């Protein structure tokens, strides 16, 4: 049994796959990794002997770790293009991640990149003949997504690890596009046999449920707390304390720039050749598409990146100014649907959002189906304006103007918390966002446009198609209120189907030891492989 594996981190994943291979009698033939462990005791030779290791920098361009005779690259014919058509849109959306200006790819280069990644993926599949593809995150880099898609069209089993808003819980699902069938089945079974007795949840899940139904400060998702409390690193690799933001943050930034300039000058004096090479010639571990150069041949130096960071900051300031010029104080007494936008580029919209990775398309559809006299209150995700991220890649200068030109749309100041708007809304709409999940827990219906982890739960309507969206609107206008008992059944189903574990050492969310998490995840992966793909 040959297994392909894709992961961002590998410290947990290597031990997990070692156990999985032992139980299933398989071997990892290829491992695609973004951030290999720096622990010398954790090696591929030890945990996945014989595996070919692909780094993110080359794999995302369709470059194999060892030179391949061009004659061995497979032909890409019409039949494959047709079978891959459902996945094309997401692939082209993912190219945004590499396009800092929005104009680096010509149409010809986009198509050439797609063909190159198809050839790369077909070469791997043809050479290895995999029996299973495991991704320890929803595949959203070019090579990982193409491999997933090719496995799907060739009938090769796929298992994808999903982390979500409930801290410490994870699950594996066989598809990016569909809800977890085991979770839906367990939920349906619990609703069917409901005898009215008390629904008991584990203490941590009960605390989470209570927190989301209380104040925003208590209910803020764990990943938002990391962001807002300054535990996420800034672009220079330092954690920014919360109190040093705002005016103090500007002073800190200026001091850091002065310090960086002095350190660079000192390095140039002491080792000019090496310093210049590292700064202006050697490619970084990350890269962007260069105009007129193929993605495969593009590279980004530290000097290039510094220039791009300045471009990002200028564009973000324009975006922020545009947003503030167009925002209006909402009338919270008027009937409205709250629409919290996603940060992009991110997996929550691409690939999980499908066609609605374009959030303007979602807002336009909502507007068409909105009852007379109702408004859409749209609020931007604050991380869009973080200069260390790539939010400017997915927002052009006219983005907010195009939104407000849609009928019934009001841009809401970002100073409003999600709960301020959820609690006064008639419903919440999002592609796959946590705001929709929080809404049903707080007694408001929600409408989703993608494959959210809570898809199928009580109070969650689907809005991808106009007839179902209009039906959802009719029920919302009639005063539909989510049944909290059914929502608690959904949480109980989550506990039953999912695994309680940490996914890696980066986000520690449980009291478990690494070994306990690794064992729990390995056992769940084996269970779900046998559950979803019985022999």
What does this structure look like?
With 535 residues, the chain is α/β, with parallel strands linked by helices. It folds into two domains: 2-163 and 501-532; 203-218 and 327-493, Rossmann fold (3-Layer(aba) Sandwich), CATH 3.40.50.2000. It contains 20 helices and 13 strands. Helix 2 (44-47) links the parallel strand 2 (27-35) and strand 3. It is globular, with a radius of gyration of 24 Å. The two termini are 13 Å apart.
- Poorly predicted runs: 230-245
The 3D shape can be described as: globular
Helix content: 40-55%
Overall mean pLDDT: 90
Distance between the termini: 13 Å
- Main β-sheet, spatial strand arrangement: 3-2-1-4-5-6-13
Compute the number of strand runs: 13
Précis, in short:
The chain has 535 residues and is of the alpha/beta class. The chain has helices at residues 11-24, 44-47, 56-59, 78-94, 107-128, 142-153, 181-192, 203-212, 216-219, 222-228, 247-270, 272-281, 302-326, 359-369, 399-405, 418-422, 434-441, 466-477, 484-497, 514-532, and strands at 2-9, 27-35, 52-55, 132-135, 158-163, 169-173, 336-340, 375-379, 409-411, 427-430, 446-448, 460-462, 499-500.
